[in-house]
Design goal:
Helices cover about 25% and strands about 30% of the residues. It contains 9 helices and 18 strands. α4 crosses α5. The longest helix is centred in the middle third of the chain and has 19 residues.
Length: about 425
């Protein structure tokens, strides 16, 4: 098998177990007060894991916390030794696991570059050739010649990432650690990962961002309690994983977002004169049954229940959809988009129906209001939860656009300018 055909990483029947040590009682008093120590045991972090990473591809490891992803990365990076099985790594490995863990606090950032480079197996000449690029990428400026013991955690991460990725690794092992730091640094990290990927670097990535995994990874491995549940093309494995997460969440969340018996959701400020009160919100699926976890693209009915204490006419009942980042994304009301609403004393409800839910995955909040000619009868701001989860292809953003792409228009080699974009 040629070097090109040979996989960059081969994992064969890999298992890793950790001993759970006995809690010792070192004195007679401890034994009397706390009893006998607990017996030791064994924790199987990985169990018979096998897969190949073709050279020049990017593989994502997905799964819940504690599924063995980070343990597997540390074995690939040589930090841990497997209990059984084998790992064959063909190429120089650079690992982004615990960035800055090998730094010496009394040394300057510049001195730690040489120290960390030596840990990564680089010669002084190789570090000399790359040091200006490392310093520029880190963005530390004059702090590069200060002791790292005065660095913030973000500065540690910047320097550790810059060292690991600017030495042109053949194989890059990346943990979720790059998700820390400010927005500018995260963008810089991801841009560089894309560049390395396009240059043919083999990347093994642990991430909890399914959008990133779908966009960056060629294939994915789903680990569940140390066992491989699925291996294959990234979109297919991510779909299977999200479907399982959605099923588990639906089984553990109460069926409705609110009930008619709830007067005011706990911790929610309520305003209005009270002639009409929203008594609850229900989320109903395609079959009319209450649902707790909503899926993008599926039918949904939002049922707003109310109680009327005095007759009111020409009422506007409104819904507002607020993203988990606090931004109000969209709203609708009966005055602009629905029928005339006149209410008599008693209980009732009104439905707002989505043929296809356009909201993308997030922990949304729902606001409700009942108004008439500028007067507010009832208003509950961000009172009811809407847990929206992905199914099918993972998308970025807050809402799914409904536009249509048309076929490209070829202008020809003699075209002298781009089409004018109207303002």
């Amino acid at each position: 098998m040629s070097a090109v055909e040979r996989p960059a990483i081969r994992v064969e029947h890999l298992s890793k177990s950790f001993a759970l040590h006995t809690e010792k009682r070192n004195s007679l008093k401890e034994r009397v007060v706390r009893g006998r120590g607990s017996r030791g045991g064994q924790f199987d972090a990985l169990d018979d894991v096998s897969f190949d990473v073709p050279r020049g591809t990017t593989v994502g490891l997905v799964g819940h916390n504690g599924s063995g992803k980070s343990t597997l990365l540390k074995i690939l990076a040589g930090v841990y030794r497997p209990t059984s099985g084998a790992v064959l790594v063909d190429g120089r490995v650079s690992a982004l696991l615990e960035l800055g863990a090998g730094f010496h606090g009394e040394l300057t950032g510049r001195e730690n570059i040489y120290l960390n480079g030596a840990i990564l197996g680089l010669t002084k000449r190789e570090v000399d050739a790359a040091i200006d690029q490392i310093i520029e990428f880190s963005g530390l400026g004059d702090f590069i010649d200060s002791p790292v013991k005065i660095y913030s955690s973000g500065m540690y991460v910047r320097l550790g990432f810059a060292i690991a990725v600017t030495v042109e690794p053949e194989i890059l092992i990346v943990d979720e650690i790059i998700a820390v730091g400010d927005e500018e640094f995260q963008r810089k990290c991801f841009d560089h990962l894309f560049r390395l990927r396009n240059q043919g670097t083999t990347i093994v990535l642990v991430t909890h961002s399914m959008g990133l995994a779908a966009e960056l990874c060629d294939s994915a491995v789903w680990l569940d309690h140390g066992v491989v549940r699925a291996i294959g093309a990234a979109p297919e494995v991510i779909d299977q994983y999200l479907a399982e997460v959605n099923r588990a969440e639906a089984a553990n969340v109460p069926a409705a977002a609110g009930t008619p018996e709830v007067d005011t959701p706990e911790g929610v400020a309520r305003t209005g004169s009270g002639e009409v009160r929203v008594s609850g919100v229900e989320l109903l699926g395609a079959d009319g049954a209450p649902v707790s976890v909503l899926l993008t693209g599926e039918p949904l009915t939002v049922r707003v229940s109310y109680e009327v204490h005095e007759p009111v006419s020409e009422v506007s009942i409104a819904l507002g959809f607020v993203h988990e980042n606090g931004v109000g994304i969209a709203g609708t009301n009966t005055r602009q988009h629905g029928p005339r609403v006149d209410l008599e004393p008693g209980r009732g409800y009104i439905d707002y129906v989505f043929d296809e839910l356009p909201l993308l995955p997030a922990n949304w909040r729902l606001s409700t209001a009942v108004r008439s000619r500028g007067h507010t009868y009832d208003h509950l701001d961000k009172a009811f939860p809407l847990a929206v989860r992905a199914q099918g292809e993972v998308e970025n953003g807050a809402v799914r656009l409904r536009g249509t792409w048309h076929a490209p228009v070829h202008l020809g080699a003699d075209a002298t300018s781009d089409p004018v974009v109207s303002s």
